[in-house]
């Protein structure tokens, strides 16, 4: 009961803080619009004749969702941890009953709500602008929060390792961009050299994109490095990685500056 | 009952020694002020006591146990550069911290207690510096702590705001709260503290009540004459040992009853002066003496009464 109360208090404070940063709110929700607008509508897909986006439009839907599920927690958590450290907030919180895991849980929940809203908008836009044909699966409702837990943990790790907010955001971008394009999101593994495939299998985002694609897309797979894993199994692997990164992230949260 | 105790606490950061075997104890209901120059190790000692820093050696006890095992519901900690979320109102900041405790006080009552009811609906980042620090104190008091750690609580606050905080801290102490504070303000330490500890280069060089420290380390009462002319003539006219420092002449050990005679002597000698002041030694003199920054007249030449 008290854990619930503490997490709720942290959640409410974090949620209000987010909502009152209008620029952050605007770009958080503008980002998926921009993403789908550029890649879904401007660049467009070309299933028949190759090109940058040569697969069926629905193939890329997990990629769009992966972008939001990866980038938002990485940059938000990284900068949030750095901001808390610079303001001696962790030093204060360390002397209250709130644990580091509870703090990370509250901020993960905030990110889950934000990403759920952004993800829904993204799905509507994708279907509307690209004509992607996807099937609804209840697994979609699990993939997003499990992915958010995983990448909030990674974001907390980055924030703990970086020495400033700028450093955390830079690190988030430096790690996020390669992951985004090398995790079966927008680039099928057939376009990558064979020797690189084991590295693709190491990325948590691969399990997100591959599993979600299996859950909501019925088209012909363009190849995967995760042969034999179905949607539920991929989700299970992602959940294990999520628990691990959450635990590591919570443990890494610094107490003092 | 001993609430805080350290024994031979050491802490180094690379080549820098922050704490070098610090031993002290603070009893329940006591107000203990820690003073010392920047970099003396004050914040490291506070962090060692609150469990946010692990000492390299020695032992620390808080409420009879290791700091990290202490009951957080009984602690209130205000870190030195603490800055809560800026876009929460003052009320929301205090309510946020109230939500972290099992039993918390009424938020509006706490805001009234620290004198920021008027700013309750103002974003923290839009509050004045004094209001911000008072909101932070409110967030620290919201769980009605038995032990309060205040790391430079009044830094950056105007005199009126400082007095409001002092009044609040005095009231808490009167109610039995143990207070451990660090400060650069000697008036603050002298007014609030039952005992003062002076930390210099990681070493606790003196501990005692303000009066005891002043008596032991504060030096003599001083008479200072700022002359409009030759200070040597003024020093000769005093008829006692004195030091010159530019246009000032300083005589130590002057009793208040002797001031009249000195004024007469200066008049007889035709010495013109712009200011004559007499001062008791203070905690600031103790600080300067023990921290190695004591004022000494630069000329350093005894000009009268010199054997």
UniProtKB/TrEMBL annotation, chain A:
GO CC field: ATP-binding cassette (ABC) transporter complex
Keywords: Membrane, Transmembrane, Transmembrane helix
Compartment annotation: Membrane
Record-annotated membrane-spanning stretches: 23-43, 63-82, 103-128, 140-161, 168-187, 235-253
PROSITE patterns: ABC_TM2 (PS51012)
Pfam families: ABC2_membrane
Domain annotation ABC transmembrane type-2: ranges: 23-256
Membrane topology: Multi-pass membrane protein
Primary location: membrane
Alphabetized InterPro entries for the sequence: ABC2_TM, ABC2_TM_bact-type, ABC_2_transport, Nod_factor_ABC_transporter
UniProt GO MF annotations: ABC-type transporter activity
Protein name: ABC-2 type transport system permease protein
Automatic annotation (TrEMBL), chain B:
CDD domains to which the protein is assigned, alphabetical: ABC_DR_subfamily_A
Domain ABC transporter residue range list: 4-226
SUPFAM superfamilies to which the protein is assigned, alphabetical: P-loop containing nucleoside triphosphate hydrolases
UniProt keyword terms in alphabetical order: ATP-binding, Nucleotide-binding, Transport
Coiled-coil segments: none
GO molecular function: ATP binding; ATP hydrolysis activity
InterPro entries according to UniProt: AAA+_ATPase, ABC_transporter-like_ATP-bd, ABC_transporter-like_CS, ABC_transporter_ATP-binding, P-loop_NTPase
PANTHER family documented for this protein: ABC TRANSPORTER ATP-BINDING PROTEIN, ABC TRANSPORTER ATP-BINDING PROTEIN NATA
Family membership: Belongs to the ABC transporter superfamily.
Protein name: ABC-2 type transport system ATP-binding protein
Organism: Haloarchaeobius iranensis
